[in-house]
Inverse folding.
C-alpha cells in the first residue's frame, strides 16, 4: 500500500484545516457495530423506489441511453421539473435556461455556493442545520455566520435577520433550509413572506434548500421564491420525496442570469447526471404516479411522526412538534446537561437505540438529539420501548 509523501501533506488546500470532523456519518458508523442496535440516525427513506420510476430507468437502459446528456440535464427532465414546480408551488421556471439537474442536492449546494462565494465572503446560515453548508462555505474560503435560532423555536425571524445584517452588512448570501434538517420545523406562508420582505431590501442571494418541501404535514409548503424569485436559488430533488437517494438526482432552479453561472460550475463538477436516473426522475416529477407515490409515503411519515412525538412527550422529552421532513429534535434529559454526545453514546450502548447528537448541527443544537422516523413502525416501536427502559433506568 502506498504511503503519502509527508512533505506534500502541508501543501493541501488550507481550508480543510478549518473543518471540524464530520460527525453524523462517523457516529452512525460507530454505533452500527453495537449488537441489537436500532438505528434512528440517517435521513434516508426506508421505502423502495416506486415502480413507475424503476420501470423508466429500466427502459432507459434497454434503449441504450448511454451517451452524454446536456450538462444541465435532459430536456425531458427539466420539463418535468418545471411542471413539478408549477403544479406544487405555483413557480414558473423556463426548462431551457432556468433549471439544472444535479447529482443530488448536495452537489447542488456546492455548485450554488461556488457561484457566489469569493474568499472572505460571509454566508448567513441559521442553525441548527445540515452541517454541509458550513463545511462547503469554509472549503470555498467563505466565512459561515451561524445564527442560533433555538431561542425562536428554530425559526429565523425578520428581526433576527435584520440584527445579523447590521453586524454583517456585507454578507453575500443566506442559506435557508426548510422544512429543516434536523428540527423538522418549517415556515408558515406569513413567516416566509415576512422574511422575504426583509431580504428584498438587501442584495443577499438566498440559497433555499427545499429538499423536504413535499413532506409538509397539515399545510402546504411555500417557497421564498414566490416572493423574491430574483434573489433565490432553489435546491430540491427526488431523494426524500420519492425515496430515490441512491439515484442521486437533484436540481437547482433560479433566474436565468444566475443559473448561467451555476450551470457552468455544475457541468465542470460532474459533466451531467446519469441518464437512467434522470429517466426515472421524469416519472417522479412529471407523472400522476410520482405524485401519488409521494403522498403515500407522506401519509406514512405523518403517522410515524405522531407516534414518536406522543411517545417521547409521555417520557418527558421537551420538543417542538415537527411540521415537516422526518425528524424529531428532542431536548435530552436534565441529568445530561447539554452533553448530547454522552447521552447519544449511552443510549446506543445501554439502550440499543442510535440517534444523532444535536451539537453536530451547529450552534443551538447542543443539548438535543435528532431522531429520524424514516424507518418502519416496527423499528420505531422497538426503539421507543428501549428509550423508555433506558430513561426509567437513568431515573
Amino acid at each position: 500500500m502506498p504511503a503519502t509523501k509527508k512533505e506534500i501533506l502541508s501543501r493541501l488546500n488550507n481550508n480543510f484545516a478549518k473543518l471540524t470532523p464530520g460527525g453524523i456519518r462517523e457516529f452512525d458508523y460507530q454505533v452500527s457495530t453495537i449488537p441489537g442496535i436500532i438505528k434512528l440516525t440517517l435521513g434516508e427513506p426506508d421505502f423502495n423506489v416506486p415502480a413507475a420510476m424503476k420501470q423508466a430507468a429500466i427502459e432507459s437502459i434497454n434503449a441504450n441511453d448511454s451517451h452524454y446528456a446536456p450538462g444541465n440535464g435532459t430536456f425531458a427532465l427539466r420539463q418535468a421539473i418545471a411542471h413539478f414546480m408549477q403544479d406544487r408551488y405555483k413557480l414558473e421556471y423556463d426548462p431551457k435556461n432556468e433549471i439544472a439537474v444535479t447529482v443530488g442536492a448536495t452537489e447542488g449546494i456546492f455548485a450554488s455556493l461556488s457561484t457566489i462565494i469569493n474568499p472572505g465572503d460571509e454566508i448567513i446560515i441559521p442553525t441548527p442545520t445540515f452541517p454541509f453548508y458550513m463545511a462547503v462555505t469554509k472549503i470555498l474560503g467563505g466565512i459561515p455566520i451561524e445564527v442560533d435560532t433555538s431561542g425562536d423555536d428554530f425559526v429565523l425571524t425578520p428581526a433576527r435577520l435584520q440584527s445579523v445584517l447590521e453586524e454583517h452588512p456585507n454578507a453575500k448570501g443566506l442559506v435557508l433550509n426548510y422544512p429543516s434538517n434536523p428540527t423538522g420545523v418549517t415556515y408558515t406562508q406569513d413567516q416566509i413572506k415576512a422574511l422575504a420582505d426583509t431580504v428584498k431590501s438587501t442584495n443577499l442571494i438566498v440559497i433555499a434548500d427545499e429538499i423536504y418541501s413535499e413532506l409538509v404535514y397539515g399545510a402546504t409548503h411555500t417557497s421564498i421564491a414566490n416572493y423574491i424569485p430574483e434573489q433565490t436559488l432553489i435546491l430540491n430533488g427526488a431523494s426524500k420525496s420519492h425515496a430515490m437517494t441512491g439515484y442521486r438526482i437533484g436540481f437547482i432552479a433560479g433566474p436565468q442570469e444566475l443559473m448561467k453561472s451555476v450551470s457552468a460550475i455544475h457541468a465542470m463538477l460532474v459533466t451531467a447526471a446519469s441518464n437512467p436516473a434522470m429517466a426515472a426522475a421524469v416519472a417522479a416529477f412529471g407523472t400522476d404516479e410520482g405524485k401519488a407515490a409521494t403522498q403515500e409515503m407522506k401519509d406514512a411519515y405523518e403517522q410515524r411522526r405522531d407516534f414518536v412525538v406522543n411517545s417521547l412527550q409521555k417520557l418527558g422529552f421537551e420538543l417542538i412538534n415537527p411540521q415537516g421532513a422526518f425528524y424529531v429534535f428532542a431536548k435530552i434529559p436534565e441529568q445530561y446537561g447539554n452533553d448530547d454526545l454522552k447521552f447519544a453514546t449511552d443510549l446506543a450502548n445501554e439502550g440499543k437505540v442510535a440517534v444523532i447528537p444535536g451539537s453536530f448541527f451547529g450552534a443551538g443544537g447542543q443539548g438535543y438529539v435528532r431522531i429520524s422516523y424514516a424507518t418502519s413502525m416496527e423499528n420505531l416501536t422497538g426503539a421507543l420501548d428501549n428509550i423508555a427502559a433506558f430513561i426509567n433506568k437513568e431515573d
